[in-house]
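User: C-alpha cells for PARP catalytic domain-containing protein, please.
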Amino acid sequence: MNDLNININTNKNKNKSIEEIIDILSLEFQQKPLESDFLLSLFYTTIFHRKSYILCNPFPPSFIDVPPQITTTTQNKNSSTITQPQKNFESLRSAFSQLPNVHSLSNKETLSKLSHQTIQALYFILKPSDGISVKFLDYKKFERKHGFLKDSPDHLKISHKPSFVFKIKYNVNNNNNNNDNNNNNNNNNNNNNNNNNNNNNNNNNNNNNNSNDNDNDNNDNNYNNNYNNNNNNNNNSFCINSSNNINYNNYNNNNVLVSSYHEKRHRKFKELEKEKGSMLGYHGSANENWFNIIKGRGFSHQFVSEECLFGKGFYFSSDSKVSTTFIKWGGNGGSSSKNNNNNSNNNTSELWWPNSMWSKKKIGFLSACTLINTLETARGIDVIATNHHQSAHIYTEKDRSLPPCYILADNPEDIRVKYMLLFSEDINSSNHQNNLIKSKNNNGNNLKQQNIKSNSIVHQEQNQLLQQQPTIEINRNSDGSSNDTFIQRTNNSSDSIIVKLRPLFRFLMVVFVVFVAHFLLNTFKTASKKSSISHKGVFY
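Assistant: Done. Predicted C-alpha cells:
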C-alpha cells in the first residue's frame, strides 16, 4: 500500500463526540473482547519496536503533533510556512503502557478516565473506516473448510493446532458503489466493464477537481494527485504516507480515513479473485509485522531480501506445516518500562501488551492468505487454484523449480491476509523445557568436568606412585663396598614367598611317599599269596 490520502469530508465518524465514541468502544470491548485484544496487542508490538517508525503504519492521527504555522514578512508581503507534523511516539507509548485490560475497558467509567487522545486512538484502531475488521472464528469451521492438517499424523494435529483463529474481513460499502454508478450515469460515461467503470469514476472526480487521473492500477498515485490538486480548495484534508511525511491543513483529531479508497481496492481484489481464481497460502512472520501487513502497507518489497533461494518475492506454502517452521515466537510478557529505558534492546521485538489475555504466554502467528491466480505468481506442482473458470494452469520452468507446495508471489496487490492463526504456549512449560535442556547440558558439562577431574586425579596418583616407587640406593660400607638395596628387597620378597610355600611342598611330599609305600605293600602281598597256592599244589 502506498500513500494514504485522508479526507475528513468523506469520513462518516468525523462529527462523533467523545461521549459517542466511548459508548461505541465500550460496546466493542463487551461484544468482541478477543478481537479487541488481538488488534491492540498487534498495535502495541509496533510502537515499542526499535523500528516503530516503519512498522506503526497507519499511525493514530490523535498523536500527531502539529506545529504552529509560521508567518514571515518579506518586502511588505506576508508568506506562511507550514512545517511538517511529527508523530509523537513518546506520548503514544506512555498512553498505551497505562491501558488496562479489555475487561476493564468495557466499562464506560474506565474509558472516560482516559485522555481524549487515547480514546480517539483506540477508536482509530478498533473502528476505522478502512473496511477492515476482525472476527473470531471457531477452529472446527476453519479446519473443515480448508482441510487444515487433514493429512497430518495425530501428534502433529495436536502440536500444530492453533489456539485461536481470526478471520480478516474486507467490507465494501454498497451505497458508495451505487453513488459511483449514478455519477457515471449522470455524466454519460456508462460502461459494462467493471474496470472501465472504475476508470470513469476516477475521470469524473478528476474533472470536478480539475486534475488528471489514471487507471485503477495506479490508484495510489491517483489519490496523491487528487489530494495535491484539491488541497488549495479543501481546508479539511491531510495526507499520511508510508515514508512518514505528513501534509496537513486544518487538522482534526478525529479518526479519519477515506473509505472510498479502500473500498475500491477491496472491490478490485474481489473482481480479480472472481475472474482469475485464487490460492490459499500460509506465511509466517514476526509478531510486530502483522499490524502493518493487515491494516497498513501490506506485504512490501521493502522488507524482501535480494538473496532469496528461488528469487525475489513473497514466499507462501499450501502446506501449513512448512510455513509453521517460519513462525517467530514472541510475547514473553515483558514490561514497557524496560523498553523505554533500553529501546535498542533486541528483546523489544518480543514485547507483548502486558495487560493482554496472552501476556503470560509465548505467542506466534501464522497467516493464511488469499493470492490471486495470476501468471506472475509462481507455484509448485501441488498447488491448485480454485474459484475460477479459466483453463488449467500450465506449469512453467519457474513453477517446476519450486518445491511442490511453494507459492512465490511478486505483486503485493495480489495478496491479502484472510486468516490469522494464533499459537500460544505457556511460559512455564517452555521454561521447563528450557530448564530440561539446560540441565542436560549442565549434566553433560558436569560429566566432562568430572572426567577431567578424574583424569587429573589419576595423573596425580600416578605421579605419587612414581614418586613412591623404590629407587636404587647405594649404601657405602666401611670397607668401600656397596649393597644394592633394590636387589636385596626383591630377593627378600621372593624368599618370603618360598618360605610360605615350603609347608605345602612338605605335605605333598609326605602324601606322595605314603601313596608309593601303600602301592608297594599291596603289590608284595599279592605276590606272596600266589606263591603259597602254587606250593600247596605241589606237595599234596
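User: Anything notable?

Assistant: The domain at 132-170+277-441 is CATH 3.90.228 (Phosphoenolpyruvate Carboxykinase; domain 3).
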